[in-house]
Sequence to fold (165 residues):
Amino acid sequence: MSSLPGRILAIDIGDRRVGLAMSDPSRMIAQPAGFIERRAGKRPPLTALLAKAAEVGATAFVVGLPLDEAGDDTPRALEARRLAHELEVRTGHPARMLDERFTTSAALRAVKAMEGSTRGRKGDVDALAATVLLEQALAHGARLWASTAHDDAPAAAPSARAEDA
Fold:
């Protein structure tokens, strides 16, 4: 994946917060990049996401695709697909969808394994969930970026599902 230049910004959309993670410029390492508060019932904070992307020098995006247990779209999946499309249109950088199932539970397990508490740290958990998502994207490497459109991304392909990563 290092053949593609620049940082990747991973976005994990939630009802109250949008968790963020970014890669290093060589696209080898994922790290939390904070979170953005979201007003309930409102669209994802596109302006704030674009500002964060510019701040970290993102040249690509990975947007978590919320699927149900059977692997089908949830009501929020359309919102995630729209966000990925808007990011591509507004920045000219590729945005790919990746199954986000189990990222939050993996983040919670990691916090508990370190004997930490999530009390008052929900935003940190959301950023860690975005980091798990980005780690999965980095593990998929160039296969994730081979697609030319965000809705052709391997989110629906078995090889790109979270449980296989």
About this structure: The chain has one domain: 7-164. Helices lie at 46-56, 75-91, 103-113, 122-140, 142-145. The longest helix spans residues 122-140.
